Amino acid sequence: MSTQWESLANEHILGIAPYEPGKPIEELEREFGIPDAIKLASNENPLPPSDRVQKAIVAALHHGNRYPDGSGFYLRQALAKKHGFAPENIVLGNGSNELIELFVRSFLRPGDEAVIPHPSFVVYPMIVQAAGGVRVMVMLRDHRLDLEAMARAITPTTKLVFVANPNNPTATIVTANEVEHFMARVPERTIVMFDEAYIEFALGPDFPETLQYVKHGRKVVVLRTFSKAASLAGLRVGYGVADADAIALTNRIRQPFNVNSLAQAAALAALEDEAHVMECVRMIEAGRHYLYDEFKNLGLSYVPSRANFILADVGRSAADIYQKLLHHGVIVRPMTPFGMETALRITVGTPEENRKLVKALRSVLGKKPA
Ligand SMILES: *Cc1c(COP(=O)(O)O)cnc(C)c1O
Fold first, then answer.
1. What's the pLDDT score for residue 310?
2. Same structural domain, 268 and 314
């Protein structure tokens, strides 16, 4: 008998369920014979990168024969300036997903515990498991991270705590007050990773200013991304802010050219384009309110959102509603894999996309047209 590949594999990865990527939208259109399907499944920005950003990408394309700047010099400098840090406090990633992995691989030793909220971003437990860490899952409470319970779950072997704020898939936040109480209870040696992918949609007086913890020397990592409000999900660029010593450790294992030159140019241009972010944030906010009203009309409950997506309860099999919506050319995300059998996560789209979603939902739920 020949040796099986699985028997050769790193044992930590064998328990990980493979990530199931959705079908490309073009494939859905072809399969169902529908011309203009819409994707409200991955919390992307429905607006394309601004003209200014697209011009910067095209300009960078002319130098596509060269390797990117492996240090991300200009982008790190611009980010440092924006946040009042030194470039040594910034690490760039191929999306913030890569940074989650970089920090976990840099700090989590086999057998170390990581406290992870649930349901939350599926990437956290996957990466912890692949690194041989112990996942300590802490259930949400009323769709919000239960920071009290998470603090209680910390033991002397807890190396890392994940705080997705806003949380995905619930789109709720933990407040400045709650985070302050939490941080007072976290031991000095425990690393807290604040994943703030949706921060632009969540900002308000109650939203925590977590960069202060980095400034005050706490073991804190703040992750941000250009994938959501900045419209650059396809370019793959995110960044982490932390103490220079922590960043230096991640740089030991970071692939030198992890962020490509088009992504660096795009992100630099996007940083100077606050008007685009403001436009998106305003559009998403209006879209949230439109969808709340329509969900109410349809008799659906939902979790009020501080991000660009909404968790809605369809009161029946979400997998079934998801399938039926596909036939109307609308792709959403059923929460069945999280054990939420009747919940859909729906990304807020353009006004036109939102109307199309509502029309499809109304039809699928057997409600009369408005
Ligand atoms: C979308 C998202 C990200 C962003 O990932 P990128 O790799 O930067 O595209 C990070 N964290 C959460 C919780 C997200 O939902």
1. 98
2. no
Residue 75 belongs to a domain: yes
Q: Is 121 found in the same domain as 34?
A: no
Cα→Cα distances 66→77, 106, 245, 253, Å:
21, 29, 30, 22
Give the domain range for residue 39. Answer: 20-48+275-364
- Residue 119 alpha carbon to ligand 1 centre in Å: 15
pTM over 0.85: yes
The structure tokens listed for 55 are 């011009």
pLDDT at residue 27, rounded to an integer: 86
Residues 290 and 320 in one domain: yes
Atom 1 of ligand 1: nearest residue by CA position: 197
Same domain, 196 and 108: yes
The verdict on residue 11 lying in a domain is: no
| CATH classification at residue 65 | 3.40.640.10
Residue nearest to atom 15 of ligand 1 (CA): 168
Q: Is residue 187 part of a domain?
A: yes
Of 215, 244, 272, the domain-final residue: 272
Q: Report the nearest atom of ligand 1 relative to the CA of 97.
A: 7
* Burial profile 151-166: b = 16 or more Cβ within 10 angstroms, e = fewer: bebbeeebbbbbbbbb
Position 10 pLDDT exceeds 70 = yes
Please state the atom number of ligand 1 nearest to the C-alpha of residue 227.
9
CATH number at residue 25: 3.90.1150.10
Residue 11 Cα to ligand 1 midpoint, Å, equals 27
Give residue-wise pLDDT tens across range 240-278. 999 999 999 999 999 999 999 999 999 999 999 999 999
Whether residue 197 contacts residue 162, with contact meaning beta carbons closer than 8 Å, is answered with: no
* Distance, CA of 170 to chain centre: 12
From residue 92, how far is each of 72, 79, 228 by CA, in Å?
7, 10, 16
344 close to 307: Cβ distance less than 8 angstroms: no
φ, ψ of residue 368 to 5 degrees: the values are -70, 145
Chain segment 117-151, per-residue pLDDT in tens: 999 999 999 999 999 999 999 999 999 999 999 99
Average pLDDT over residues 11-24: 81
Distance 329 CA to ligand 1 centre (A): 25
Distance from the first to the final alpha carbon of the chain: 65
Q: What is the 197 CA–ligand 1 centroid distance (Å)? A: 5
